[in-house]
Amino acid sequence: MGRMRIDIGGVRLYFDVEGAGLVPDGTGMSERPVIVALHGGPGADHSLFKPVLGPAAEFAQVVYLDQRGSGRSDIGEPAQWTWERWADDVIDFCDALGIDDPVLVGTSSGGWVALTVAHRHPDRISGMVLDSVMPGPAGERLAVFERLGGTEARDIARRYWDGEDVQDDWERVCLPLYSQRPAGDPDAANRLARIRWNRDVIEHFRHTLAAEFDPWPHLDRVACPTLIMNGEDDPVATASAARRLAGALPNTPALHVLPDTGHGVFREDPDRAIALLRDFLLRLEP
């Protein structure tokens, strides 16, 4: 089919699809759940989910979406790089493609978008999977960085979050601490190289959007079942914050905190993440 883009709110959003939505079942066709995968960054792209989310296509249809301003989607106006606009884009995108009751899978800031969808449009999604999503307080995050990388990592992280120009030090010292996978992963460098970053979006996030994200007052509006996955050694979306989120959400969400795991459970432990996703979708079946 080539590259697939659809006009949503004046911008063309790129998407890709893996897996069948309808499968033969005796004399009829059975409908599979539809997953809409929301990447992190913000300002990264859907390649973060490939190939780790691919096995989910055996039991669901997976729709990968590059959010407004990211990846292969149009950049649009910077004034529209907001949690609310990204969340509303998800609903408008699903409406345009006729996707009813999707399950949102959000990793990192993609989970911030999913949470925003869940409280702004609580009747529009059937489930939500939050992978390494809720940021801990600054002191909590800095403590994890220090535990994993010493005082140098703590100091660089503090200066980065304070808005200082320490990008090179951040990428050299702090970013490697996001992952607890064994050294020598042959695809690690390739994964980073595949991302089509919009650096303007992530800088906008660092200086503005991060401070504007506050879902706590709205969590009582979240109506759908939720699965929360987190790494015990995640230095940004801390395990303690994941536990607090689980305690604040209604409907008793499922929480899984994995030991020796960093940021992004789908990347860090893909087999475990896919198994948890499969079980979650089975519990959603009527």
From TrEMBL:
A Pfam family the protein falls into: Abhydrolase_1
InterPro entries: AB_hydrolase_1, AB_hydrolase_fold, AB_hydrolase_sf, Peptidase_S33
GO molecular function ontology, one term from the record: aminopeptidase activity
Leader peptide range in chain numbering: none
The entry's keywords: Hydrolase
UniProt-listed SUPFAM superfamilies: alpha/beta-Hydrolases
KW Cell membrane (keyword) present: no
Domain AB hydrolase-1 stretches: 33-269
Biological process annotations from GO: proteolysis
Any one of the GO CC terms: membrane
Homology family: Belongs to the peptidase S33 family.
Protein name per the record: Alpha/beta hydrolase
